[in-house]
Design goal:
This protein is 18% helix and 46% strand. The protein is α+β, with helices and mostly antiparallel strands. The radius of gyration is 18 Å and the shape is globular.
Length: 125
C-alpha cells in the first residue's frame, strides 16, 4: 500500500512535532549542545580532538550520555557517539537557570572559553 504525497507530508510533520516535544522534555537533562553538518546532539560529556595533519583539519568528536535529533531514529538516547568530520562542529556548554521567578542571567560557554550571556525573566503561573 503506497502513501500519497499529502499523507507522507502529514506523517513527517507528526514525526517532527513529536521530536520537538521530546526535545523540550529532555533538553534540561544535558550539559552540552553539539551541532555538526549532519546532526544535532545533546550530551553530558563532549571531547573534541583536532588532527592537524590534513587540510582542512580532521575533527573527532566523542559524546557520552547523548540524545540525537533524528526523527527517523527509533531510539534517540545513546550511550556514546563518535563523529569524524572535516566540517565545522559547534559545541556549547549550556548553563540551565533555576526556574525561580524573576530576572536571571543565562550564560552559554563554548570550549574555547567564549561566553554569551543574556537576561531572562521567569514568571510564575
Amino acid at each position: 500500500m503506497s502513501m500519497s504525497e499529502e499523507e507522507l507530508d502529514d506523517y513527517e510533520a507528526s514525526l517532527e512535532l513529536s521530536l520537538v516535544q521530546e526535545y523540550k522534555a529532555v533538553v534540561s537533562m544535558f550539559k552540552w549542545v553539539v551541532e555538526t553538518e549532519r546532526r544535532f546532539y545533546l550530551a553530558n560529556e563532549v571531547d573534541v580532538k583536532v588532527t592537524e595533519g590534513s587540510a582542512p583539519p580532521l575533527l573527532e568528536v566523542t559524546l557520552a550520555d547523548a540524545w540525537v535529533w533524528d526523527m527517523y531514529r527509533p531510539a534517540r538516547f545513546v550511550a556514546s557517539v563518535r563523529v569524524v568530520t572535516f566540517k565545522d562542529v559547534n559545541t556549547l556548554l549550556v548553563v540551565t537557570p533555576s526556574l525561580i521567578p524573576g530576572s536571571q542571567l543565562i550564560a552559554i560557554t563554548n570550549p574555547d572559553g567564549e561566553t554569551v550571556s543574556l537576561d531572562a525573566t521567569f514568571v510564575a503561573n
